[in-house]
Amino acid sequence: MHPAADEALLPQKTSAAGGLFVTGTDTDVGKTVVTSLLAALALAKGRNVCVYKPVQTGVSSPAESDPALAQQWLGAPLATHCSYCFGPAVTPQVADPEQTIALPHLQADLQDLRQRYDCLVVEGAGGVMVPVAPGLLMRDVMLAFALPVVVVTRPNLGTINHTLLTVQALQAAGLCVLGVVVSIPQAALDPKRSCDPAVASLPSMFAQWLPVPVLAWLTPLALAPSALSPGRLNLDQYEALAAIL
Q1: Residue 220 contacts residue 184 (beta carbons within 8 Å)
Q2: Mean pLDDT to the nearest integer, 198-223
Q3: Crossing angle of helices 202-209 and 159-172, rounded to 10°
Q4: C-alpha span between 99 and 94 (Å, rounded)
Q5: In which element (H, E) is residue 80 found?
Q6: For the CA atoms of 147, 150, 151, 152, what is the dihedral angle to 10 degrees?
Q7: N or C: which end of the chain has fewer CB within 10 A?
Q8: DSSP codes joined into one string, 11-38
Q9: How far apart are CA 214 and CA 195, in angstroms?
Q10: Rounded to an integer, what distance in angstroms lies between the CA atom of residue 115 and that of residue 101?
Q11: What's the pTM?
């Protein structure tokens, strides 16, 4: 564990009044969609919101980053920030051979954003145990940020194991996990998939084994520009998600 993360204060929260950290069980599970939706819900509640991506890989500039995509989907004034951007679509430590990523810089950016916005939606890169820099995992960044966590997962074979392992790793580190969002891809709505016992059994298995609530079963969204405009959202449809903000 990174030394700077050891000293983090880890308040146990039941809501994300000042912000939250969105992580996933894997890459491409829908973190950016959930991050965007949370930002839209916070804006709809009158919050002063910023979407923050500490480290982005696979793009050449912040203008192509996940927060910029969120800004496009919301079609509303949305503050965004990305501390580090790297072109290769690989884990941050591999994408940064010159080892420029520094936890103190990430912490300084976070504190600056906290002073300017009352709600931060922070999106991680990959999963909890992704190497960010030598001696620094994404989990350590999360510890240093000391924000409550939302875990995004997807409904397929292996999801129960991946989700339980992710939640367990976060809780064992002392982080507060607010809940899980199941991001359902379009392919999962195929009638053949709906009969898959590995998928059909997820609600009952999560109810039995997950130590945190499932906040939403998120069906595919039509992610065109302004699709997540706060004025278009049905807050009742996302009641559990809106409640944590």
Answers
A1: yes
A2: 89
A3: 20
A4: 9
A5: strand 79-86
A6: -130
A7: N
A8: ---SS-TTEEEEEESSTTSSHHHHHHHH
A9: 21
A10: 22
A11: 0.90
